[in-house]
Write a structure and sequence with these properties.
Length: 653
């Protein structure tokens, strides 16, 4: 799939995704990897062949001391029968690995007998085949400038090549390069007609010269590659293509879709089970009846995850993937929650599908996911036997800070890492749910740390959560026998419950779930203190407890529903509206009012909420200091802002 066609759009719209974490946007940006630079054609003395290089630093051309090409660059055809080169190539390709390895691996080169001509100097540059040049990036060839690129510097030292500094942090100041290349921008030095120009200007000048001499052009390249979507796997959507015996490749007609996978599959043999299946792949061409073979590769599962959200908006549509009106009604997704492991591929592919489909279907939005939240992982220490076998934590017994299996074999405790089946550092949810119940497990997970951080699984933590669940139940039992009916002028708990609703609402909206949990711990204590004091009538305290249950039902639904049913006789807590906030209880009770005379602060008066102008004025006039200042003056104006300020304006006298 031609995702690279959308490289620029995918890159530039990242800026508009205000509800996405910066780190995810940065990862996508780096993955797309836009590089602005230029191509330069170097003429060589090998049959006048040209080598095209890509560079982002054409301003360093006067510091070039060699050319390096990838081990399978076409230029290497000239040596394909050279045994020494063959050995080098095998070694280099074996160790090529990832891009980051390329910068840390030892730099190795094979020196060819050929040279390239420097485009601006009467100078010949040796041509190497090198293990740190990627075949499928840029043009698979570079000019090496050791003074300003770390990899080139390591290479130059090893093969005793020239190191010529051509960029300096200060104008006209010659610098020396020893261990570390100077990779920042600066001013050109040792660079003929470029001298003293800034890096930015020097790049422009050199590119203009290359274009003028028809030996180069400016060029933007991307790290992003087109997406190969076929996989040699059983699980995945069949690719609707057949290969006819006469060699023609045919699309399966729509009326024969969907192609379904066979169920009688043998996973015992190596390779793709579809390929090995005795009958599934054999079919006939629907037009000619000729023999044909089905494609046995299936689609990458990322293909399905790139558009499932569109189908969710239109799940009853029978004749096509979705109905555009429904898509435009529901999309974009308001809030997407997923693990950071999907930061790059899944989220980039989904954005690409959305853009590509938008053109076809007139979507009224550009991006599929308006807000993104990436939750952390659940982590646990790992355990290994001395022979290196992973061991489940539940099989480990601790004795005096050492760890053993039941048969007394000692095991070694390793770091805490994201739980994974292969490392066996997992806790079986069924085991703990059967001891503590699902609510306690949820409550612990939510309470432990902010949801975007990793959490450390701990037995103590889950026990703490379990105690809280029990306390909710015990509170209900205390309320059942609560007697007080008399109304008393005590609204502390009522006030706290309103503050709680407000705080929890804000916390949930901001994903500060662990903070919400902490507040709910405190609040249950408040209810219990009030029960001890017996200062609230039964109806009020039950109402508060009911509101509390509605709130916690979003976190721990089972216990909430159970207590709710006991009180109301109904099992409908999930149908309850989120409790409303009574603002009057949120207001502050006391305010400090600043009293000014002609704009100058003269006193501070303690007032109750919304206390009237008259009251504040008479309180002010009772203050000695104010009486002295106002003596012989006439008040001409009063400016009063409730709960804040009273400014008294007077005549000059
Ligand atoms: C000369 C030069 C001088 C370079 C200098 C850098 C510093 P990004 O920004 O990552 O795109 N390069 C080009 N193609 C390559 C390939 N196929 N394999 C390995 N390296 C390659 O990096 C662009 C730079 O990476 C290019 O600019 C080139 O080295 C190198 F002082 O050219 B430069």
């Amino acid at each position: 799939l031609n995702i690279t066609k959308y490289s620029d759009q995918l890159l530039y719209s990242l800026e508009k995704l205000k509800g996405w974490p910066e780190k995810v946007k940065l990862m996508q940006k780096n993955w797309i990897g836009r590089s602005e630079g230029c191509e330069i054609d170097f003429v060589t003395d090998c049959k006048d062949l040209k080598i095209k290089v890509f560079t982002t630093r054409p301003d360093t051309i006067f510091g070039a001391s060699f050319l390096a090409i990838a081990p399978d660059h076409p230029f290497t055809d000239s040596f394909k029968n050279d045994k020494e080169f063959q050995d080098f190539k095998n070694l280099a390709l074996k160790n090529i690995g990832t891009e980051s390895l390329l910068s840390t691996n030892e730099k190795l080169g094979f020196k060819t007998p050929f040279f390239a001509f420097h485009p601006f100097l009467k100078k010949k540059l040796p041509i190497f085949i090198a293990n740190f040049i990627l075949t499928d990036y840029g043009s698979g060839a570079i000019f090496g400038c050791p003074a300003h690129d770390q990899r080139d510097l390591e290479f130059a030292k090893k093969y005793k090549l020239e190191i010529i500094p051509v960029v300096s942090p200060q104008k006209a100041k010659i610098i020396n390069i020893k261990e570390e290349a100077y990779t920042e921008d600066g001013y050109a030095i040792n660079s003929d007609f470029l001298n003293d120009y800034t890096t930015k200007d020097a790049k422009k000048i050199i590119i203009d010269k290359l274009i003028e001499r028809k030996i180069g052009n400016s060029k933007i390249i991307y790290r992003l590659k087109d997406w190969g979507i076929s996989r040699q796997r059983y699980w995945g959507c069949p690719i609707p293509i057949i290969y006819r015996e006469d060699g023609k490749i045919i699309l399966v007609p729509e009326k024969d879709l969907p192609i379904t996978l066979p169920k009688d599959i043998d996973f015992g043999k190596p390779g793709n089970p579809l390929e090995n299946h005795p009958t599934w792949k054999f079919t006939k061409c629907p037009e000619t009846g000729m023999k044909a073979i089905r494609e046995t590769d299936t689609l990458d599962t990322f293909v399905d995850s790139s558009w499932y959200f569109l189908r969710f908006c239109s799940s009853t549509e029978k004749t096509k993937p979705f109905n555009v009106d429904e898509i435009n009604y529901w999309m974009p997704v308001d809030q997407y929650i997923g693990g950071i492991e999907h930061a790059i591929l899944h989220l980039l592919y989904s954005r690409f599908f959305t853009l590509a489909l938008k053109n076809e279907y007139k979507f009224k939005f550009n991006e599929p996911f308006e807000n993104l939240f990436t939750q952390g992982m659940v982590c646990h220490p790992t355990f290994k036997t001395k022979t290196g076998k992973w061991v489940f934590p539940k099989d480990v017994i601790e004795k005096n800070n050492s760890f053993f299996l039941k048969n007394n074999e000692e095991v070694i405790k390793g770091d805490s890492q994201a739980m994974s089946k292969s490392k066996k550092n997992i806790i079986d949810p069924d085991d703990i749910i059967s001891i503590y119940g699902a609510d306690a497990v949820r409550w612990f997970i939510l309470s432990d740390s902010p949801p975007d951080r990793d959490i450390q699984w701990s037995d103590n933590g889950i026990q703490g959560a379990f105690k809280y669940i029990q306390k909710i139940w015990r509170t209900y039992e205390k309320l059942k026998i609560y007697k007080k009916e008399k109304e008393e002028n005590n609204n502390n708990l009522i006030r706290n419950s309103n503050i709680l609703i407000k705080d929890i609402t804000v916390c949930v909206e901001k994903f500060q779930i662990n903070v919400a949990v902490a507040k709910l711990y405190v609040f249950l204590n408040n209810i219990n203190e009030e029960i001890e004091k017996q200062s609230l009538n039964k109806e009020d305290i039950i109402n508060i407890y009911k509101k509390y249950l509605i709130i916690i039902s979003a976190f721990i639904p089972y216990i909430a529903n159970e207590c709710w049913e006991k009180i109301t006789g109904k099992q409908d807590i999930t149908l309850q509206e989120w409790p409303k906030i009574d603002d009057t209880f949120l207001r502050k009770e006391n305010f400090d009012i600043v009293v000014q005379i002609n704009g100058k602060k003269r006193a501070i008066i303690n007032a109750t909420n919304n206390e009237s102008e008259e009251n504040i004025l008479s309180k002010s006039l009772a203050i000695k200091n104010i009486q002295v200042i106002l003596e012989k003056k006439i008040i001409t104006k009063k400016i009063f802002i409730k709960n804040k300020i009273l400014n008294i304006v007077t005549t000059d006298e």
